[in-house]
Amino acid sequence: MGDLAMLQWSFDRDPEGMKTTLESVAAVLKDVEIRRSIRDAAVAEAAQGRRLRHLRPARRVPCPI
After folding, report:
1. Domain residue spans of the chain
2. Which domain of life is it from (predicted)?
3. Distance between CA atoms of 55 and 48, rounded to whole angstroms?
4. What is the pLDDT along the chain (65 residues), one digit of tens a residue?
5. Dihedral sign, CA of 16, 14, 5, 27?
């Protein structure tokens, strides 16, 4: 209950500061989302590359006989 009262007091006292804080949090969350999607794409691409590597024919080494 005390936290809620403190939050209300802070909001009434400094709405611009709260707005700035919320905008900062939103920007950080957006950055995390972008980084995660880039990482996920890189992991998927690497996994795809590994699968394709297994499908390529092996390099033939000439037999010395």
Report:
1. 2-52
2. Eukaryota
3. 11
4. 577 777 777 767 787 888 888 899 999 999 999 999 998 888 888 887 766 555 555 566 666 66
5. positive
